[in-house]
Amino acid sequence: WRDVSWNVLESQDKKKTMPLKNVPTNISPELMHALMSMGHGDEIVLADGNFPAASCAKDCLLIRADGIDAVSLLQSIIQFFPIDRYASDNCVVMDLVESDKGRLATPEIWGKFESIVKKGDGEELKLTPIERFAFYERAKKAYAIVATSETAIYANLILKKGVVA
After folding, report:
1. Is 143 a catalytic residue?
2. Can 48 be counted among the known catalytic residues?
3. Residue-wise pLDDT tens digits, 117-149
């Protein structure tokens, strides 16, 4: 299932592709396939450039989004992705490590993430910070990890898929 093929029409042994309208260019066919394949309760990780995506994705799908930042990718994904309203931890970020809590402010990108999620799927949604190694363990159980080129630190986000109502 990891080999995504968008060839949908066959004519005289020649395969043709069928393009879609209004799909943002930063959503690859592999990412769209993953979003559509996920079920209620499945999780997807948007990982920054420092996240150990390949080592965490040994048992899940690793999707490369090289050259794409996490904010613009989230803006594109949220158009299609319903957030799980039955879970309290449906939008999870990696919390700052103790040594960073005293010297760094809340990451600016968290505000951007929260704004996008609220605008796209509901004002009551909020980010839930979890400890770094707990985040890694949860990421390992995700349906997919999307490795972006995001340069902001602590720019890792887990989204839990809900249902389309």
Report:
1. no
2. no
3. 999 887 788 999 999 999 999 999 999 999 999
Q: What is the pLDDT of residues 59-108, one digit of tens each?
A: 999 999 999 999 999 999 999 999 999 999 999 999 999 999 989 999 99
Catalytic residue among 84, 121, 143, 154: 84
Q: Can you give the three-state secondary structure of 88-147, one letter per residue?
A: CCCEEEECCCHHHHCCCCCCHHHHHHHHHHHHHHCCCCCCEEECHHHHHHHHHCCCEEEE
Reply yes or no on whether 40 is catalytic. yes
Please give the radius of gyration of the chain, using alpha carbons only, rounded to the nearest integer.
Answer: 17
Q: Which of 89, 95, 100, 136 is catalytic?
A: 136
What global pTM score does this model have?
A: 0.87
Token output for 12: 């005289």
- Reading the block at residue 143, the tokens are 């349906």
Q: Is the dihedral of CA 27, 33, 34, 40 positive or negative?
A: positive
